[in-house]
Design goal:
The protein has 4 helices and 9 strands. It has 171 residues and is α+β, with helices and mostly antiparallel strands.
Amino acid sequence: MALNRYTGMENNMPQSFSSMLDRFFNESVNTKGLSSFTPHVDACETDKGYEIEVALPGIRKEDVAIDYQEGRLSISGERRFEKSEGDGRRYQMLETQYGSFNRTFYLPDNVNPDQIKAKLEDGILHVTVPKDVQKTMKRQISIASGSEQNDKENAKNKKVKSAENGKAVEA
């Protein structure tokens, strides 16, 4: 699996001046809400598997869910803005991101999903996805000649002549 750096610029460049203005005003209006949080991720491949580290400062493990289905590893959760009533605070600046998040990673077929492990430590979620040894093991395949293959098929056909009521009758 080749890990390529995603800069985010691929989808962020406006195609026209009009779309740039639309995006500017939409993002300006939408940033007032606390609905978007995108945690930073570091991912790498080792000899034994894949390691994913997700920065989740201030998030409890109860607020994070990890799912694996059909080659997709999804990490989702929510970072809540804890504002107590009547505490006398008036925020002048709020740069920390809050809200729900979902990050999805497409993994190759050589992983062992039954052995995926995760731990949350010091605000970093560590997910370890081991490779399946049976799928990654190198095997030597022997090559049979055409006559050997035909002899094996003929021997199988002679043993089972017909099937009656689901039972094989040998010749």
